[in-house]
Design a protein that fits this description.
Helices cover about 40% and strands about 15% of the residues. It is α/β, with parallel strands linked by helices. The protein has two domains: about 90 residues, Leucine Dehydrogenase, chain A, domain 1 (Rossmann fold, 3-Layer(aba) Sandwich); about 120 residues, NAD(P)-binding Rossmann-like Domain (Rossmann fold). A six-stranded parallel beta sheet has the order 1-11-8-7-5-6. The protein has a three-stranded parallel beta sheet with strand order 3-2-4, sandwiched between helices. Strand 2, helix 3 and strand 3 form a beta-alpha-beta unit.
Length: about 290
Amino acid sequence: MILEGKTLAAHIRAPLAQRAEAVRQKLGRPISLFAIGSTDDYGAYVYLKKEVQAAQNLGVHTQVHEVNNATPADAFLRVLQHASSQPDIDAILIPRPLPPALAQSGFTRFIAPEKDIDGMSHISAGNLFLCKTWEDVEHLPTFVPCTALAVIRLLDAHGIDPQGKEAAVIGRSPTVGRPLAHLLTCRNATVKICHTFTQDLAGSLQQADLVCAAAGHPGLLSESHVKAGATVIDIATNLDAHGQLCGDACTQALLKRGCHVSLVPGGVGPVTLACLLENIILSGERKL
């Protein structure tokens, strides 16, 4: 079965413009998003522009501050500290990758947690790590990383309950792999994290009922890696040899094996954007 995300994304986005307008009327101004984007990464910057345009379509006021490899780390941190301190900025978004000097600047410490809509800050990550149950997650005062949350919501939309299942997450990034693994434990799955130094990936995945792939390697997951009937959530966004967007999974081979597989594009991606937009609105609503 194909697990598509466009229907769920449309459902999440449907009430957001109305919610944004309700916030505008009560605050006396629109919700405000401040984004910092690296122009050195063309793909990430184009996607940021798409996110910003989607927010503008909901009535959100947006600002984009551009950085690049020549941007000094101290200047970058000053901009971020200023945005975090401004009462009329509700949400802050900083897509990765950033230039190396900026990525290593410890910038996540300077994001105000109440504005940290993608759960990047130390406080946001710490709050999530302290959650034991899904009820704890739902009552967080901070935000959950959008891609990780999108995976859980996609599973729920297709009636796939992680509880009691053996799950494997391929990738250990602080924005996707690790928070997703923790969310799955909060949904009562038994979780294994695989990464570059996992010596026998196929062997590590053989018993998994649920495999979430965010490695960034086209064709990584074939029918020999995954047991028949498993659920495969493909989170990666790669370009194949023909320049076409693809994930980590060999989708058609896995479907023939009776697996449930999310598409790339059209699976986790649109749900991630919907969750991000929802968090922007929520950042304004929490000020009411």
